[in-house]
Amino acid sequence: MTAIGQRKKHMATTLNDQALFDSAIRALESEVANVGAYLVLDPAVRQAYARQISHKLRIMAMRVATELTTKPIEASSADEVPTSEILLNEEASGKFVSGAVLEAAVWWNGFYLLFMTDDIPFEESLRILLLDAELNILDSAFVGGPYSSGSFSSLDLIEPNSVHFRFIGDTVWSVELFPHPVIRLPLLASEPVGVYRSLGFRRHFVVHGNPQPQSSDQTRK
């Protein structure tokens, strides 16, 4: 393996902080340009090679996306579903999602996976949203039910394509991500109790879990 290849592999597996990750990519692109000057005479080929390495570095790592945050939008009425604007590196994106609190954001293979709650005591729900790199919603799921309550915790990123967490139902939930949408027939491929999906036959992710019935005492905790 070349020195550049070893450095690329090391960075993809160890860098999680976005600022450090971006800085490392710029350094590697500079190195590729310098080495390429000796290997390739055509500058267009050098540029294409640098772009390819930069793209691969950006999409291959599963990581917590610290660069993505949200800002709640003031509701016009108490009955309105909470809405938040997505911020990237603290800059407004002009894109909005349902939910009041961003519990976690994960970057995976060119996508953002968001976990949003509504901040409603004793009847908390979780919205799971998959966005593309332009922050367009590709798929979503809703986890919750009447008088159910829980707190989002224990986020765990499992390579190559799963995210585990705890919420309601005294179970470990997981989201299995697909690099391309797959066909799922709603009546034949149902998801756990408490998971609700809009009608559709193509999914970018599925939700797994084995939720247990929640007593009235638990909902008051």
Protein described:
The protein is of the alpha+beta class and 221 residues long. The chain folds into 2 domains: 59 residues; 156 residues, Lipocalin (Beta Barrel), CATH 2.40.128. Helix content is 25%, strand content 37%. The chain has 4 helices and 13 strands. Strands 1-5-6-7-8-12 form a 6-stranded antiparallel beta sheet, with no helix packed on it. A hairpin with an 8-residue loop joins strand 6 and strand 7. Helix 1 packs antiparallel against helix 2 and helix 2 runs antiparallel to helix 3. The N and C termini lie far apart (55 Å).
Please render the helix and strand layout as text.
Blueprint: H1 3-14, H2 18-39, H3 43-60, E1 63-64, E2 68-73, E3 83-88, E4 91-98, E5 101-108, E6 111-117, E7 126-131, E8 137-143, E9 153-158, E10 162-166, E11 172-183, E12 195-196, E13 202-208, H4 216-219
Antiparallel strand pairs: 1-5, 2-3, 3-4, 5-6, 6-7, 7-8, 8-12, 9-10, 10-11, 11-13
Helix pairs in contact: 1-2, 2-3
N to C succession of SSEs: HHHEEEEEEEEEEEEEH
* CATH class descriptor of the largest domain: Mainly Beta
Q: What structural class results from the helix and strand content?
A: alpha+beta
Q: Using DSSP, what is the number of strands?
A: 13
Radius of gyration: 21 Å
- What would you call the shape? globular
Residue-averaged pLDDT: 80
Distance between the termini: 55 Å
Strand order of the largest sheet: 1-5-6-7-8-12
Helix content: 25-40%
